[in-house]
Structures are given as structure tokens and as C-alpha cells.
Design goal:
Radius of gyration: 19 Å
CATH superfamily: Nucleic acid-binding proteins
Order of helices and strands: EEHEEHEEEE
Structural class: mainly beta
Strand content: 35-45%
Largest sheet: 8 strands, mixed
Number of strands: 8
CATH architecture: Beta Barrel
CATH class: Mainly Beta
Helix content: 10-25%
Number of domains: 1
Number of helices: 2
């Protein structure tokens, strides 16, 4: 196949899961990659944008005929929960759609704050599983000896708001746990 169909989409108001945005990580025998998963409701604008791009890629790459063996990067969260060894770790996926996108280690994604321009680092504490985020993703068709699928390449992430942290991610509000201490109490 000589042409690869692709579309760049922006998915807004998603929930960030398993963000590996500042340091690439390897899975199994693969090369280290940056990655993140984005959760969204089936009827959301993000779902509509993703489905339109998928339909356009199918039309362009496979002349509108969806291949029987086609694997698509946008998947149902309920299936993820059902297949998980520890389903309680994936309860946030229930009733959602999700897409996992990755980037090669020589092309790290841009990660920005709510203003859409200020770069964020891991130290900001704003990038965690459960944060509300937008993503710029390149969806692209693959049809070769490695499979027939529509993949997702991660280009950029915008933190769009605070969400409920998953697992141990996110910053803790220490004021809920510590009380003010008078330094004189520590004098010897």
C-alpha cells in the first residue's frame, strides 16, 4: 500500500490515564515510548471527532470497505475491565471509550497547561491519571505484515482541569492531613 491515510484530531475534555509523558517507557521487548490513554464518554464530542476521523481513514485507505481484521485504537472501556486481571484497577474505564496514543522517544509530546501554551514538567504535579486533558493525536491507517489497524500517535497534551486522581497519582492536599506546627515546639 503506497499511501497511508491519516487525520490529526483534537480530543478535548478527556480523562487522562497512565500518562508516560515525560520519560519514555518500554513495554515487553519494544523500544521506549511516550504514551497516555484518554477516556471519554461514548456520546461526547471527543467520541464524535474520533469516529469521524476513523470513518475518513477507512474511506481513504480501504475505499470505504472496513477490513474484517481491522483493529481500531478507539476501544470500549467495558471490554478492558472485563479482560483485566485486576478489574478493580480499571473501574474508571466502565462505560467509557478510550484511546491509547504513543510517540517515539525522539518525538516527545508537547505538554502544556490550561492556557494552551505554557509548557509543563513532571514536577508541576498537574499531569496525573485522573486529570482532565485534551490531546492532539494523529490517527493513521496501517496495512502491512504487522497488521491491519488504525493507530494513534501522540502529538500534544493540554491539562484542562483537575480531576479525581486514579490510584496513587496526582498531588496530595497536605492541608487535609497536616496541622500547622509551631517551630518553637521543635526547639531543643
Amino acid at each position: 500500500m503506497s499511501k497511508i491515510a491519516s487525520r490529526i484530531v483534537t480530543l478535548n475534555k478527556t480523562v487522562l490515564s497512565f500518562p508516560k509523558l515525560f520519560k519514555p517507557e518500554a513495554y515487553a521487548e519494544g523500544e521506549p515510548r511516550f504514551s497516555a490513554t484518554f477516556l471519554f464518554d461514548p456520546g461526547s464530542e471527543a467520541a464524535k471527532v474520533a469516529q469521524q476521523a476513523i470513518d475518513e481513514i477507512i474511506a481513504e485507505q480501504w475505499a470505504g470497505k472496513r477490513p474484517n481484521a481491522l483493529k481500531v485504537c478507539v476501544q470500549e472501556g467495558d471490554a478492558k475491565v472485563a479482560a483485566a486481571r485486576n478489574p478493580e484497577n480499571y473501574s474508571m474505564y466502565e462505560g467509557k471509550l478510550y484511546v491509547t496514543a504513543s510517540a517515539k522517544q525522539d518525538r516527545p509530546p508537547i505538554v502544556v497547561d490550561t492556557d494552551g501554551a505554557t509548557p509543563l514538567s513532571a514536577a508541576s504535579g498537574k499531569v496525573y491519571g485522573g486529570a482532565i486533558a485534551g490531546a492532539i493525536i494523529r490517527l493513521w491507517g496501517q496495512d502491512n505484515k504487522w497488521g491491519v489497524r488504525i493507530n494513534a500517535e501522540l502529538r500534544a497534551v493540554q491539562v484542562q482541569g483537575a480531576g479525581t486522581p486514579f490510584g496513587s497519582g496526582g498531588r496530595i492536599d497536605t492541608s487535609r492531613y497536616f496541622q500547622a506546627v509551631d517551630e518553637e515546639d521543635w526547639a531543643a
